[in-house]
Amino acid sequence: MIEQELQELRDAKWRTNGQPIRTQDDAREFIESVGFCLMYPLRPAVLVPTFIGAWAGAHDNLPTWQHAFADPRAKDAMEVMVRTLRQKFAFEAPLFGDTDFLVSASVFPYFYGLVGDRNPRAPIKTGNRSEYSPLAAHVFQVIQKDGPITKSRMREILGGELSEAAIDRALAELSLKLRITRVDYRAEQGAYWDVLLRWCPDEVREGMNMSIAEALTALVSKYIECVVAAEQLEVEEFFSNFIGRGRVREAINALLAAREFQFTHIGTRSMLHIPPPKPTMAAPRKLVRPGQPIARRPRRSGVPRPLTPVAGISTSKAEAEPDVESNPSGAENK
């Protein structure tokens, strides 16, 4: 494979090959296919698809989040994205700063297992060892009691003297640990926030019971499937936003040892990719004696072939984390 072929494969998967998404079903199919994507591209670039790119059908001249207000494509794409979140086809994980990071419903439990709070039912405490500020704790109490709720309503309950910037900082603290999430947006009222455990309890519970090693190996595998092929440094760079690079290297080595990954040369670069499945051996034909009737197999027209599960995502815990130590405490989460 050459670099141009790799880019063509990515364009086809990321819908940047002139075949844009236009409907709600298109959006759902796209996010489920790639697993996760940014809403807008970042500078410097991050090797991951974007929702706005899939909406535009191209990867050039895309607006960043700072300039989205001036691009008519962004308004239409945002409306479809919000409907996707509202219907729980995807979830938001604000792990890249100001631009939205969208995760498909099937992949979200693994992100929660990697970066989410291990005890989301516990009340938020403040103090020297707490991850949350006193204001974040108060904001969480308001959302837990009155959510889904807008920022303007939060300010009314907490006291009108609070600035919007202060509330934004508190919301960011809670969002980074996936304690809360944006569940809706309306032009007149703005975003609505709710407790994540209440919004998607099944996905949160599944993530809570997953080890970091299991979650990370599954996500690394899904990432390679999403980008088709990537250098190990690119994989480490992407996941360093969530966890230490050492843990990422361990996950890659475990997947290489399990032969889930292999290296391939694309141009002058050595890149990780998922090898194609090995062909199964056909059963040997039985000899038929002269005069013996031939037993014919019944026809199976119309019976679909079973789908191959996504590598890493559908495996069991034992298969997903070979040679990688489990760390349920999440101490190395970033």
- Count of helical stretches: 14
Element pattern in H and E: HHEHHEEHHHHEEHHHHHEEH
Distance between the termini: 35 Å
Quaternary structure classification: single chain
Shape label: globular
**Major β-sheet profile:** 3 strands, antiparallel
Question: Which band does the percent of strand residues land in?
Answer: 5-15%
| Annotation, overall tally of beta strands | 7
- Estimated structural class: mainly alpha
Return the average pLDDT rounded to an integer.
85
- Helical content class: 40-55%
Total number of domains: 3
Rg, Cα atoms, Å: 23 Å
Unreliable parts: 299-334
Layout of secondary structure:
Layout: H1 3-14, H2 24-34, E1 36-38, H3 51-56, H4 72-86, E2 90-92, E3 101-104, H5 108-115, H6 134-146, H7 151-158, H8 164-176, E4 180-186, E5 190-195, H9 196-199, H10 201-208, H11 212-227, H12 232-239, H13 245-257, E6 262-266, E7 269-273, H14 317-320
Antiparallel strand pairs: 1-3, 2-3, 4-5, 6-7
Description:
The two termini are 35 Å apart. The chain contains 14 helices and 7 strands. Strands 1-3-2 form a 3-stranded antiparallel beta sheet. The chain has a two-stranded antiparallel sheet with strand order 4-5. A two-stranded antiparallel sheet has the order 6-7. The protein is mostly helical. The protein has 3 domains: 15-106; 134-201, Winged helix-like DNA-binding domain superfamily/Winged helix DNA-binding domain (Arc Repressor Mutant, subunit A), CATH 1.10.10.10; 211-278 and 311-334, Winged helix-like DNA-binding domain superfamily/Winged helix DNA-binding domain (Arc Repressor Mutant, subunit A, Orthogonal Bundle). The protein is 42% helix and 10% strand.
